[in-house]
Each structure stands twice: as C-alpha cells, then as structure tokens.
Design a protein that fits this description.
Layout lengths: L1 E5 L8 E5 L9 E11 L1 H8 L15 E9 L11 E5 L9 E5 L3 E3 L6 H4 L2 H15 L7 E5 L4 H12 L3 E6 L2 H9 L4 E4 L5 H8 L5 E6 L2 H8 L3 E9 L11 H4 L4 E4 L7 H16 L7 E6 L3 H8 L7 E5 L3
Parallel strand pairs: 8-9, 8-11, 9-10, 11-12, 12-13, 14-15
Antiparallel strand pairs: 1-2, 3-4, 3-6, 3-15, 4-5, 5-7
Helix pairs in contact: 3-4, 3-9
The structure holds NADP nicotinamide-adenine-dinucleotide phosphate.
NADP nicotinamide-adenine-dinucleotide phosphate (NAP) binds next to α1, α3, α4, β9 and α7.
Length: about 325
C-alpha cells in the first residue's frame, strides 16, 4: 500500500508518500480501507516534534479516518468485511490507503454520512462532546459561547449544543466563518478579531454572562473569558498555544471553574458513551460534519500548511486521490 511516512520531525515537507507493507489484523484488530482521513492541528505539532507525547520514528500520522472494512481478526464479531466505518484512533496511522485499528477504535458509519464526513468525527466531534457534555456538564437551557465556531471542533460543538437545547453563541475570524457558524444553528455570532466582541457577548446575554465557554485559543482569550461568565460558569479549555495572564478574583466572584481537557485522557467507558451519542446524532441528522477542504493523501504537506492558517471552515480531509 501507499502511506504518508515521517522519518524525522520537522516542517510539512517531512511528510513523504511511500510504498510500504499492508498491515495484517491480529485477533482483535480491524483493517480499514481508508476512503478519507481527517487532518487535525495536533498532527502538525507531533510532526514538528513539539508535542508532549511523540511516536517512535518512522511513523504514519493520523487517528481519524473513514472507509470500508477490508479484513477482521479472528476474535472480531462486531464488524465484517464490507462494513462502512469511521475510526477514532489507529495502530498504524490513517494517512494511508489502509489502517489497522483495535476494534474499540472502529465505529459504524451511518448510511447518511459520507466518508469525508466520517473522517471528521474521531477527534473533532469526540472532543466537542467530551468538552461540552462531560467536562462542562452542559444542561438544556444554559447559554454557551463556542469561542472558535468556524473550525472542526467548533462546528461540532455548535451542533451538539443546539441538539442538547442550549442557547448558542459562536465566534469566527472571517466573514465566511461567521456565515458558517450561523448555518450550524447559532443564536448569535461575533467576530473574534474585534477587541470588543466580549462586551457584545455580554450584551447579548442581557448582562448575565454565559454559563459555558468552549475555548479554542485560551492563550489569547482566557483572561477576558472569565469576565463574561455567569455565576457558576465553566470555561473548558480545548485549544491553547501559549501562556496567558488571568485575574483569579474573576473566578472567585462567580464560583467559576476552568476545566482543561485532552481527549486521550477520556476513560474507555466514557469514550464508548461519547461514540454511542455521536452515532445516534449522525443517524438522526442533528450532527452534520462540515467539510471545508479536501486534499489528496499524497498532498498531506499542503493539508498541514492549510490546517494552521486562519480562516477555518469546518474540517480538512485527505482522500486517496483527487
Ligand atoms: P481548526 O479547524 O483549525 O479551527 C481553529 C479554530 O480556532 C477556528 O474556528 C478559528 O477561527 C479559531 N480561532 C482563531 N483565532 C481565535 C481566537 N482569537 N479566539 C477564538 N478562536 C479562534 O482546528 P480544530 O480542529 O477545530 O481545533 C481547535 C483547537 O483545539 C486547536 O488548537 C487544536 O489543537 C485543539 N484541539 C484540542 C483537543 C483536545 O483534546 N484538547 C482536541 C482537538 C483539537 P477562524 O479561523 O475563523 O479565525
């Protein structure tokens, strides 16, 4: 098979398109013929060698993918060859024509969901679900600000919040991003390039503040986020690219919580619950992954450059050929 391989950490150019042996499934493993692979910012941090947990070299990047089951191990009864599935994690990497997964990393892809959309679920939707529903414990009737509602996690968070009966505000940093956030069902959108957007959010809540902030860039926003929280408000930190100064008194006045998360910390039982919820939402149409850009698998370097640029519009995916 062909796969993207990384032999040394570095810039996007270290992503090489090479021939390699197609893996064979062990007893409880599933081999998936990848029809689309999701590109996440974390894969650029790993490729650059700057992430806390790094794989051994050489490796094939990617946790998220969707495709058709090619072969299953002897102990796998949940899937059979020909099933349409999405992956949330992989043993051998999804930036490849085939990916080997543990059976727990594979989930059924509903018939109304495309392979490209399937590649948007594993990290972005699971992260949005974990952040909003398990870490922030969002309840119907609460108000949430999705700070960064134009990207892969943000669009997922908006759809999940709407499906769960929240009042939803979102931000984006481009006109197209603001339009996209609106289309996902937000009750109001704000431009995070405008320094006064925090005051505008506050006004939109009638001065009460928001119950939850789902934060994609905490190093820029956290200090001001704390000032627009309602009493007992929660900020869930999903993304941060550096340090930030906060005033702890802002949390004291509100009995507010700052809750960090990374998806790999999710206990297996809670992860299984996340995917059960996501599959149900995909089936009933409340969750509809948005695909912003598609690149050929062999052009993974271009996709890595694109995912770190401003102006996000949903998910970036790799497809076998374009
Ligand atoms: P993405 O598709 O590239 O989206 C990035 C989002 O951040 C866009 O909506 C972007 O808006 C927004 N943004 C840019 N400047 C902002 C600002 N000043 N304030 C608020 N938002 C701003 O990336 P993604 O896949 O959604 O991931 C989002 C972040 O979460 C990344 O940092 C990623 O590494 C992290 N993440 C963490 C976990 C975890 O387990 N904790 C899991 C997945 C992702 P515009 O482009 O419209 O400006």
């Amino acid at each position: 098979m062909k796969a993207v391989r990384v032999h040394e950490f570095g810039g996007p150019e270290v992503l090489q398109w090479e021939d390699m042996e197609t893996p064979k499934p062990g007893p409880s493993e599933v081999l998936v013929w990848i029809h689309a692979a999701g590109v996440n910012p974390v894969e650029t941090y790993i490729r650059a060698g700057t992430y806390a947990r790094l794989p051994e070299l050489p490796y094939t990047p990617g946790n998220d993918g969707a495709g058709v089951v090619e072969q299953v191990g002897a102990d796998v009864t949940e899937f059979k060859a020909g099933d349409h599935v999405y992956t949330a994690g992989s043993l051998t990497g999804t930036y490849a024509e085939f990916a080997l997964c543990r059976k727990e990393q594979v989930h059924p892809l509903p018939a109304n969901v495309s392979f490209a959309q399937g590649a948007a679920i594993g990290t972005p939707y699971a992260t949005a679900y974990r952040g909003l529903l398990q870490r922030a414990v969002a309840k119907p009737g609460e108000t949430v600000l999705v700070h960064g509602a134009s990207g892969a996690v943000g669009t997922a968070a908006v759809q999940l919040a709407r499906a769960n009966g929240l009042r939803v505000f979102g931000t984006a940093g481009s006109d197209q991003g603001l339009k996209l956030a609106c289309e996902q069902g937000t009750h109001g959108v704000f431009d995070h390039r405008a320094p006064d957007h925090f005051e505008e959010v506050m006004k939109a809540t009638g001065g009460r503040g928001v119950d939850i902030i789902v934060e994609m860039l905490a190093n820029v926003n956290l200090g001001k986020d704390l000032k627009i929280l309602a009493k007992r408000g929660r900020v869930v930190i999903i993304g941060s690219r550096g340090p930030v100064e906060i005033n702890p008194r802002d949390t004291m006045q509100r009995d507010a919580d700052i809750r960090g998360m990374i998806l790999p910390n999710t206990p297996p039982v809670e992860m299984a619950s996340i995917h059960a919820g996501l599959v149900a939402g995909l089936e009933n149409g409340t969750l509809r992954p948005v695909i912003g850009k598609e690149f050929a698998l062999a052009e993974a370097a271009e996709a890595h450059r694109a995912v770190m640029k401003p102006g996000a519009l949903g998910k970036i995916v790799l497809v076998p050929s374009k």
